[in-house]
Amino acid sequence: MxxxxxxxxxxxIASGNNDYFMINIFNYQPPxxxxxxxxxxxxxxxxxxxxxxxxLRDSIGNIxxxxxxxxxxxxxxxxxxxxxxxxxxxxxxxxxxxxxxxKPGESLQDNAKSLATSVKxxxxxxxxxxxxxxxxxxxxxxxVGEAVNVFSGNISANSIIGRTTGQVLNPNLELLFKGVxxxxxxxxxxxxxxxxxxxxxxxxxxxxxxxxMAAKSxxxxxxxxxxxxxxPDVFQPKFMQGPGAHPFLYTIRQSALVGMNxxxxxxxxxxxxxxxTPVKMEMQLRFRELSPVYNEDxxxxxxxxxx
Amino acid sequence: MPRQLKIEDVKxxxxxxxxxxxxxxxxxxxxxxxxxxxxxxxxxxxxxxxDSGLLCxxxxxxxxxxxxxxxxxxxxxxxxxxxxxxxxxxxxxxxxDNRYRSLxxxxxxxxxxxxxxxxxxxxxxxxxxxxxxxxxSSTGYKCxxxxxxxxxxxVERLMEYSFLGLFPINLSSTPVRYGPNSELTRVTCExxxxxxxxxxxxxxxxxxxxxxxxxxxxTNVVQDGLENAFPGLNRNLTGITDTINRISGPVSDVLNxxxx
Lengths: 307, 260
What we know:
A: 5 helices, 12 strands, B: 7 helices
């Protein structure tokens, strides 16, 4: 394994009580290295959702940078509006009853008969529940309209009911949770070397970040050569104060470096030092977390604003 | 309620005001590369550390400001909080000696900052330049030991400003014209610096509790006899009393100082 590299710009930024930004780089570890075979029963669903520490091995190096010019976080989850009207609910009930009416071991003919009886009973029950015969008739027509739609008609149940009764089906509209989102972070750094040593550090930092974010070819020779490519390294960005974590700012999970821009003419016009190092560079890094943040993850965070 | 005061009450205060004409500028901490570059052009080290400061006939004690952000959380009230200290640039005015060392000092200092490509090809048709690193310990163009001292005629009290990362950014055009023979050539140069420290930063003063204007804080004048125990301790004081003696000496001496 290559020697672990420690790079720092500016010199001594991490000494004393200074605030700074640290990026640890690790080899990527796949989330399920043993595959999914051999699972049975309840274990078939036992796929851990949060694996924030799985890559904390095989450190490649760490980079210390000044605090970025922009520090923001954005935590999001997906919620979306959802509707379920009475007809859909009745259809669901009918289907559920139909499934329950099927008896293993009975003949196909008997099962079909009990299925039809169950479906008819379910819809009759739903229509009777409406009480108003006129409304029940409208709903019946709407159901027929839905059936026509099977043959490429374009008849809406609400259209039939609205034209006959002046009402529409209650959509039971509600905002429902749909899922989690992976967070993304953008950071900008101004790099202005003050001496030749800082210039060297900056050059190596840019090189290491570019190298680590690049995909790897899994095998250079042999039968598998060229068939697969391997994931790039992963990163653990962290806000620091002195030797410890920053006491206020947020925690970032292990991330992939999905974008990196460097402007080598930060002065506006091309200007360099004696060894060709640009006088000012601007570096933008775009990280995306490998796993979403769950409520339970906050149990491990005792300081700061959390994730 | 206002106090009724007699002349005797205010005399100790009003009678001991600071005079603006007692000060000293002292350049120092230039890298060896910069000193060598200036030396090749006739600006020797003694001129940089001693005479250039004496030729400074107009200076400023440095200033700074606090940048603020505003909060309007309370209806109708605007609160202001400081979030950054900003150091203003420093402008110094110099008499020019008849060897033009004041002019050469700043002209070639700025030239050195832009001489990362070397020094010998200024007249080439394809001349370009690169910058020197500002903070390199041997070739940097910033200096870290430039000071301005403010004191009174008795030199009992001293206010000291130490500049870190100072370098010239603007050498003003120097006016010359036909006129009376008594008019002197004056050079004005503006400097930028990273920050300054008010009060003595001598380790001896810090140990005694007088560093950074602390303690009784009004003086960092040292006692006789301590020089042997702490070499270099009396350097500042000696330099200042020397300045006063030279400026307040016979007219011929003063003229000799400013015209040669």
